Structure to design on (87 residues):
């Protein structure tokens, strides 16, 4: 990492440096500078979550799984229904 003067950083990179550290902010800058990215609202991949929910479902814990993974109960029940249909 080259010598960086933190007080001169663009506001975006300053906020990023405050959040994840100067070195990591520079790594992101170096890798992605000039590109635009939109971060997904959800941390987890829906297909992978659906598989995990199917494996953790005990017949009674749909609400608990919805809270655990940040999806609605309706979405969880739909994932379980699709898994049953696929079998």
């Amino acid at each position: 990492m080259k010598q960086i003067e933190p007080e001169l950083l663009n506001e975006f990179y300053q906020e990023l440096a405050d959040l994840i550290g100067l070195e990591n902010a520079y790594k992101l800058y170096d890798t992605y500078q000039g590109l635009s990215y939109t971060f997904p609202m959800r941390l987890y991949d829906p297909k992978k979550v659906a598989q995990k929910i199917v494996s953790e479902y005990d017949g009674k814990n749909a609400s608990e799984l919805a809270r655990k993974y940040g999806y609605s109960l309706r979405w969880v029940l739909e994932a379980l229904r699709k898994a049953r249909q696929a079998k």
